[in-house]
Amino acid sequence: MNKKLIDKLYHESLLSKDELLLLIGTTTEDEIQYLCEKANQKKEEIYGKSVYIRGLIEFTNYCKNDCYYCGIRCSNNKAIRYRLSLSDILTACEQGNALGIETFVLQGGEDPYFTDEKILEIISAIKHKYPKKAITLSIGEKSYESYQKYKQAGVDRYLLRHETITAEHYEKLHPTTLSIKNRVQCLQALKELGFQTGAGMMVGSPYQTDEHLAEDLLFLKNFQPHMVGIGPFIHHNDTPFHNFADGSIEKTIKMVALTRLLLPNALIPSTTALASLSGDGRKQALISGANVVMPNLTPLPVRGNYLLYQNKISTGTETGESFRLLKEEIEAIGLTVDLSRGDYRI
Ligand code: SAH
Asked: Where does 2-338 sit in CATH, by number?
């Protein structure tokens, strides 16, 4: 009976690959529900009822990479490209600040226009204005030296999903210029440099098997990231994967719950991809182990162009109204919005 396994996972925060495979594969409703309940319980033991809010600023959708799944890959000439100016970025921060948000996440494609010098200029401008706020970067694979400079400039956290840990599978999702080896080296460098480091994966990406997902969980357990981003793969019409089915909500939620039980202290967002695919995807994740939400602060005129996949929602905080709705959604499931920095708890 898999409920025994779930109890074991709850108590020991560890399972073997075969045991994980049983839970990843279960379709029994009451087992899934039990898994989600235990994950929720574990989250509450560490973080209580708090849902941490991160203001997301998608500051460039130019990208030199050509990941087969991603809508802003360099070969997609239908993508409408944009870059935010420093003053646009600061305006977005002001908007977040007005709402009391204490963490800004700067995400973008790997855009060579944003040299280290430009990134450092942005970071110091934000730090100068908001010395106490946390800054998270998510701009892909860089050299150790670049990461070191960002850290010295005051960046607190870095998100770099590993996407899939199995080399064979990684190669099916990426051109040969990219490798899981380098991705993991980057993650190791980030951790070593003292960033709160985020890894994570897409669920239901093309050619993915449950075995790949089990390996992802074992990698996470071993690497011990501070943050884990997990979202369903969603197709984009102008990519090589346009014909592939979207990932399943149920499996994504299971992976969130399993991750919480393996890594009790992790900060786990209820991702935009989940919310985009299903009306109550966000809520489901928040009662199954997730404890972070990232409303969008990207200026409205360009927000729709950061289109990683079809029908990406762009709910943000552009009006007090939409932020109030987010709060209401969170409170309706008995949780509370926590605007503090929400650092990793040891
Ligand atoms: N350039 C940065 C940010 C990438 S976009 C980096 O390399 O880390 C952020 C995340 O969006 C990616 O890590 C990927 O997991 C996710 N993503 C991209 N395309 C997607 C798709 N089609 N469906 C679901 N998630 C996708």
From this structure: 3.20.20.70
Distance 249 CA to ligand 1 centre (A): 17
Ligand 1 close to Cβ of residue 69 (< 6 A): yes
The rounded distance, in Å, linking the Cα atoms of 218 and 6 is 16
Output the residue whose Cα is nearest ligand 1's atom 10: 161
Residue showing tokens 């080399």: 167
Polymer length of the chain: 346
Query: Does residue 246 sit in helix, strand or coil?
Result: coil
Question: Which value, to the nearest 10 degrees, does the dihedral of the CA atoms of residues 139, 142, 144, 147 take?
Answer: -20
Q: Are 153 and 124 in contact (CB under 8 A)?
A: yes
Nearest residue to 157 (alpha-carbon basis) of 145, 139, 143, 144: 139
Interatomic CA distance for residues 186 and 180, integer angstroms: 10
Q: 62 near 75, Cβ under 8 Å?
A: no
The pTM score is 0.98
Q: What is the pLDDT at residue 92?
A: 95
Contacts with 1 (C-beta within 8 Å, 6 or more apart), sequence order? none
d(CA 73, CA 334): 39
Q: Which residues of 12-50 are buried (b: 16+ CB within 10 A; e: fewer)?
A: eeebeeebbbbbbebeeeebbebbbbbbbebbeeebeeb
Cα separation, 71 vs 208, whole angstroms: 19
In 104-246, alpha helices (H): 116-129, 144-152, 167-173, 180-192, 210-223
Model confidence pLDDT, tens digit, residues 86-144: 999 999 999 999 999 999 999 999 999 999 999 999 999 999 999 999 999 999 999 99
- How far does residue 308's CA lie from ligand 1's centre (Å)? 7
Go through 278-291 and write b for each residue having 16 or more CB atoms within 10 A of its CB, e for each that does not: beebbbbbbbbbbb
The b/e string for 159-189 (b: 16+ C-beta within 10 A; e otherwise) is bbbbbbbbeebbeebbeeebebeebbebbeb
141 CA closest ligand 1 atom index: 7
Structure tokens at 343: 């650092």
